[in-house]
TrEMBL record, chain A:
Pfam families: DNA_pol3_beta (PF00712), DNA_pol3_beta_2 (PF02767), DNA_pol3_beta_3 (PF02768). Confers DNA tethering and processivity to DNA polymerases and other proteins. Acts as a clamp, forming a ring around DNA (a reaction catalyzed by the clamp-loading complex) which diffuses in an ATP-independent manner freely and bidirectionally along dsDNA. Initially characterized for its ability to contact the catalytic subunit of DNA polymerase III (Pol III), a complex, multichain enzyme responsible for most of the replicative synthesis in bacteria; Pol III exhibits 3'-5' exonuclease proofreading activity. Keywords: Cytoplasm, DNA replication, DNA-binding, DNA-directed DNA polymerase, Nucleotidyltransferase, Transferase. Belongs to the beta sliding clamp family. This is Beta sliding clamp. The lineage of its organism: Bacteria, Pseudomonadati, Pseudomonadota, Gammaproteobacteria, Thiotrichales.
Automatic annotation (TrEMBL), chain B:
GO terms for cellular component: cytosol. InterPro entries: DNA/RNA_pol_sf (IPR043502), DNA_pol_Y-fam_lit_finger_sf (IPR036775), DNA_pol_Y-fam_little_finger (IPR017961), DNA_polymerase-Y (IPR050116), DNApol_IV (IPR022880), IMS_HHH_1 (IPR053848), Rev_trsase/Diguanyl_cyclase (IPR043128), UmuC (IPR001126). PROSITE patterns: UMUC. Residues 7-188 form the UmuC domain. It holds the Pfam family IMS_C. It comes from the Bacteria. It is an enzyme of class 2 (transferase). Monomer. This is DNA polymerase IV. It comes from Methylophaga sulfidovorans. The keyword Manganese does not apply. The active site is at 107. Keywords: Cytoplasm, DNA damage, DNA repair, DNA replication, DNA-binding, DNA-directed DNA polymerase, Magnesium, Metal-binding, Mutator protein, Nucleotidyltransferase, Transferase.
Amino acid sequence: MQFTVSQDTLVRPLQLVCSIVERRATLPILSNVLLRVQGDQLSMTSTDMELEMIATLPVAVEEEGKTTVSARKLLDIVRALPGNATISVNANDGKAVVKAGKSRFSLATLSSDDFPDSEGANYIDEISLPQSALKSLLDETSFAMASQDVRYYLNGLLLERDDTTLRAVATDGHRLALGSLTTSTPVSEKNSVIVPRKAIIELGRLLNDSDDTVKMAFSNQQIKVELPDIHFTSKLIDGQFPNYERVLPLGGDKEVLADRDELKQALSRAAILSNDKHRSVRINLDTDQLKATVTNQEQESAEEEISVDYKGAPLEIAFNNAYLLDLLNAIPDNKVKLLFTDETSSALVTPADEKFERQYVVMPMRL
Amino acid sequence: MAKQRKIIHVDMDAFFASVEQRDHPEYKGKPLIVGGQPNSRGVVAACSYEARKYGIHSAMPCSRAYRLCSHALFVPPRFDAYREVSEQIRDIFWRYASEVEPLSLDEAYLDVTYTEAFNGSATLIAKAIKQDILDETNLTASAGVSYNKFLAKIASDMDKPNGLYVIRPEQGEAFVAELPVGKFHGVGPATETKMHNLGIHTGKDLREKSLTELTERFGKAGQYYYNIARAIDERPVRSQRIRKSLGKETTFAEDIHSIAELIAKLLDLGERVFESLDKQNLKARTVTVKVKYADFQQVTRAHSAEHIIKLTDLKKIIPLLLEKTEAGHKPVRLVGLSMSGFDLPVTEIIQPQLDLSLNDDF
């Protein structure tokens, strides 16, 4: 196997592929990246047995073939070479030789036959959508995923397809984020999958804000996402996601309309006095006025007051300030609507001028 | 009015002698005296019920006991063995009581006023304690249940051995009225004679005396006699220690070889331990697993976490702890699981963040 490629063509796809390689892999071969040269293409595959990423790029092929080398070492070498360098890789006799200019590296290889094969899957109802749309959907919801929760089904993002709606839901048990978008093709049957946290984070890195098309489809055990030069698959979490509809509060009668930036900035400033132990911000609502107070154990305090649109009864309620900031960051719109019931019930936060596309539910803290 | 208290007095039956008979089956059914040798100047520390038939009782000189029953077996005490059992029964007490006040190795007052097990029925709790003691130590105890220490202690003596006697709040006064003063805890033989001379034979007689009269005759103790004649005893059950651990164990009818089975048994115990933890609002950071092999050798393996350990965490921790034992290679007769490390600062225990109700439909 032998090919030649320029450093600046190779570095980004290699970086993406290497990002899913575990630092402490359970099998030595999982630390390696599979290099396969065929036709005029190089494909690079990495896997952690849950996720698999394949990047494809055109190279100058001298000899077809395949091998595996340490992902980390290859990436470090490529990254350390100058952008205009021409890199050649030649694998033979259990060694892979990487050359560029006057640099020469000889790397150990493991047989490509030992590299885990990806399982085939029956994908249905493939959809195409702009990368930017999928990226926003993930950005707007994934922050609420649980991490290492014993309720393993919360350590991921629920993706649900219903007719032409693609919905994403995440919850860590304290807050819930729901986002949705409309796709061009309807789904044959309503279905949903839970995509593991790591896969969602990797996908977030993979996608950009362009309108380039991304294709996505689910099978029973896997999700696949295809970009022009990247093929990404992940196993799914086998579990029952909570019924998110029951978590959405219905009866809130205290409606606040606020300027998102103003509220966000006030809370960010107040957060300066928060710490790991004291995360709560106390919100006091009165007619057309919202006051946010943070106090800490050193008896310091921060008070912020902003004008809002509010006609309800006075309310005092506390939240984890980070949760509020997370959701305000996820809402790009200028006006937000906050709906409260009482100081021990969840609050619903949505963009002011849309009804159901994005909804954030957050439980208060005890006062 | 303050909540009516529920107090249990537990007293092991012929404690030292029963332990000896348990560990030496050849002593069973025989008059047994634990203490000095017959020809020594030692006294009887304890004697079996079989020996009591001959009029032998504790604190009697051994020489006298020998005269009463020359074929009695005289064995020296093994205090380490008694202390071990004592610890076992105290652990059992802590499963059920919020306060435990030991009086000696084999006797304790328990306050179960706030215990929620068995719907708070002190009688059923006492029954469960007796059963746990029998299951785990192979010894019997007698329990008295009432609404104060004085009555609970009298009650435990009513139905010995292996007894359970309950004095209900509405029975207290009548019960005391009938009782010979010699049976009152705190009335020794000297006081008893003194009372008899004053015409006080029963609780009823005692009740008829005024407080002034009693304090004149008996000094400070007069107030106590005045109160107990009315079945009043406000002394609280005082724990001498703060609970450091909470655990349960189980002995198998047949030795277990399979790791999977042991894990299942330990998870069952874990559920029960967490029930008790929840009731007492305790959060633990350490899990200890005890394994006793068929050859009676025993090991414990512990795991301490940075954070509070949840019941669901046990699924991960228990197999890891068992891996560090010879379970699976050697047959196991007993496993135990205990939780400790309750010393987290209160601020960290309180979880101020409220939860979404995700589980309604599971």
